[in-house]
# Entry
Amino acid sequence: MVRRAHRQASPSLWLILAAVFVALGALGAFLFQKDGNPYRTVEPLKPADYLENANSLKGNTYQLEGVIASSLGSSPEKGRLFSFRASYGDKEWPLPVLVPPGYRDLNLQKGQRYRLKVRVNGAGLIEIEEMTKS
# Structure
């Protein structure tokens, strides 16, 4: 009875398989990253357009990113009004942002950075629909 030689897999084959697994892992990490912008499908608010004519933006939804500058006022029925330094381009713009009563339990403080999904309401104020810390 003749014995056949058992052939070993070549080292280059193992290197190719390892490279494929690393590439698939990198692709998976890229696709399922958790640090992405949750509002990437929402158009960014251009602060210059808002400051020029807020009435033309009424009813539309936008995204904003920036820092809470200060508290401007509070009403139990309407919510809290904050000054928000919105980052757009290479500038920061001061904008009034209304936090509705539904976010009453949040402890919003000066200097905290947020990413917001906002709507320009009927009064021309920027009202928060959703918010996440960034």
